[in-house]
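User: Here's a structure from my thesis project, written as structure tokens. My advisor, Dr. K., wants to see whether a designed sequence matches the one we expressed. Can you design one independently, without my sequence as a hint?
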């Protein structure tokens, strides 16, 4: 089996966003992505300029590291990236499931995998117009089909502005059966040389207030609106 390209494995820490916010989690962050979002906050797991920092690991190696970090106690394992769906995590999931671990993945819905049906949670996060990317809805639907109706699925959409907001409403109408989480965008300005964890916290909170006010004024009560808790706690620091 081909090796997995891994940017980092870390935790246990809390899940910082979406349906599992606050849940103790070990993260397996992959290297590589088929998108190049304009506001990506994990370029170290996306941009090929960081490829030299990614480890090539066998599935068994990845799993051993997860067990070491969790002390062998079953916990949620989050597959993230980049786009973890571009790699084959079927063996890692099988190893973990045999020992009672739970698995979640977040992906933009551009690559469908048979092993989606083995997940406990599939977070589909299609990228809004501000990202500069476009969603292929046929591929997105294939991701849903791959779950075989055995995996819990939710939508998570990042919102920066009115255009993103209107787009999120369109996506929600297209998939009315999927729970929806909205998240204010995390735009990372060029950091000072001595602070690579810098974030625009004021901008994030301004967007959070705007998003809450907007949905309430529109009587749009379907979405749950949450910040990135880990960003509020630790900024864009890696490994938390």
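Assistant: Designed independently from the structure alone:
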């Amino acid at each position: 089996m081909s090796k997995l390209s891994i940017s980092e494995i870390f935790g246990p820490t809390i899940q910082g966003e979406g349906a599992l916010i606050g849940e103790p989690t070990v993260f397996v962050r992959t290297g590589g992505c088929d998108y190049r979002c304009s506001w990506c906050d994990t370029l170290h797991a996306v941009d090929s300029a960081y490829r030299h920092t990614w480890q090539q690991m066998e599935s068994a190696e990845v799993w051993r590291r997860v067990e070491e970090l969790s002390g062998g106690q079953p916990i949620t394992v989050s597959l993230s990236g980049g786009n973890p769906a571009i790699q084959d995590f079927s063996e890692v999931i099988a190893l973990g499931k045999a020992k009672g671990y739970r698995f979640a993945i977040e992906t933009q819905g551009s690559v469908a995998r048979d092993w989606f049906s083995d997940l406990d949670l599939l977070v589909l996060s299609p990228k809004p117009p501000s990202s500069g990317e476009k969603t292929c809805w046929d591929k997105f639907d294939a991701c849903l089909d791959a779950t075989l109706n055995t995996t819990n699925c939710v939508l998570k959409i990042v919102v920066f502005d009115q255009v993103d907001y209107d787009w999120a409403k369109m996506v929600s109408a297209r998939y009315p059966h999927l729970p929806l989480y909205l998240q204010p965008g995390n735009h990372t300005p060029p950091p000072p040389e001595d602070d690579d964890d810098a974030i625009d916290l004021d901008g994030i909170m301004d967007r959070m207030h705007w998003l809450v006010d907007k949905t309430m004024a529109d009587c749009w009560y379907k979405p749950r609106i949450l910040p990135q808790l880990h960003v509020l706690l630790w900024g864009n620091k890696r490994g938390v």
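When you compare it with your expressed construct, this may help: The beta strands are 4-14, 24-30, 55-57, 76-80, 102-107, 121-124, 152-159, 180-184, 224-225.
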